[in-house]
Design goal:
alpha+beta, Tumour Suppressor Smad4, 4-stranded parallel beta sheet, 17 strands, 28% helix
């Protein structure tokens, strides 16, 4: 078997580049031939992963959730995909936490060498893909607008600072979920396919193998009088949602849905976030792509 190791030299304060010898040495214990490629520009990981399909038995890659999304964008519309090995080195690493892949390099390498292969669901959003979350509304632009230098210096705190600086109006926007015949004013909409979002266990009973997507919308509080009070209530509900999880919070401001596909119409200036990266604008069709991604996960991982 042969593999290519693709890594983002900027992610995680450059720690992967410093440990390159350790990584290649460990990968050589499993794979007969190991090729190494350091990405050179935004979108390069997508290109490299796509070109690796059909040439390599495994794609091992490092980076954060955005890097995971790049790999997914590159390969998800192809057939006969190689196995994926993941060394998390990002700021939040939501996918890694969901799959219990350690952020420690040596431990992540052990998973790649001794783990098991599982077929995981992903989501198709119009002509694009997402692994674990598709979101729009309050705070969602912070993950892709936060400068890399800030993420390297203060970690995920940089996201919160960015969100407060540039998302403090927290405006409501029209959401028309046509597939569920639901129209509402919302502050935040989340399509979730994993347990963690922004470092919080928002969806603790989620599965990446159940062929379903969970949707949560923070709606406008109809009973509250006055715009500022409505916003405050919705912000409070949002905080409780992220602290305690979607299944433990019951409030009229929260709408929970579950299904295999959704059609959602929003204004053209509403920007969607795919796994922490800037996605498309406006209306979307979201559907599950069941058991598409061949992922190496810990051998003792029982629920995925």
């Amino acid at each position: 078997m042969n593999c290519i190791f693709i890594y983002n030299p900027v992610s995680g304060r450059g720690k992967i580049h410093k440990k390159l010898h350790l990584i290649t040495k460990n990968l050589a214990e499993k794979y007969d031939d190991v090729t190494v490629y350091a990405t050179q520009y935004s979108g390069d990981m997508k290109r490299a992963a796509r070109e690796a399909v059909g040439k390599y038995d495994a794609i091992v890659f490092s980076g954060g959730d955005g890097s995971f999304n790049e790999v997914l964008q590159g390969i998800a519309d192809l057939d006969n995909l190689p196995e994926l090995g993941y060394i998390p080195s990002g700021t939040v690493n939501d996918i890694a936490h969901t799959l219990q892949i350690p952020c420690n390099i040596k431990k992540a390498l052990k998973v790649i060498k001794t783990g098991k292969n599982e077929m995981l669901d992903c989501m198709k959003v119009n002509d694009h893909y997402a692994m674990y979350v598709v979101a729009a509304g309050a705070f969602t632009s912070a993950t892709y607008n936060t400068p890399q230098i800030d993420k390297n210096s203060v970690g995920k705190l940089a996201y919160y600072v960015e969100g407060i600086k540039h998302n403090f109006n927290f405006d409501f926007f029209d959401i028309d979920c046509k597939s569920e015949k639901q129209r509402m004013q919302g502050m935040l909409i989340l399509f979730i396919n994993s347990r963690y979002v922004s470092g919080f266990k928002v969806n603790e009973l989620a599965s990446l193998q159940d062929g379903k997507i969970e949707v949560t919308v923070i709606k406008e509080e109809k009973k509250a009088k006055g715009g500022p009070l409505k916003k405050f209530i919705s912000l409070l509900v949002m905080a409780v949602l992220f602290l305690f999880g979607r299944r433990r919070v019951k409030n009229e401001s929260l709408l929970h849905l579950e299904g295999t596909s959704f059609d959602v119409d929003v204004a053209d200036d509403v920007v969607w976030n795919f796994d922490g990266e800037k996605g498309c604008n406006g209306k979307i069709h979201v559907e599950v792509v069941p058991k598409k991604i061949n992922m190496i996960v810990p051998q003792n991982l029982k629920r995925i």
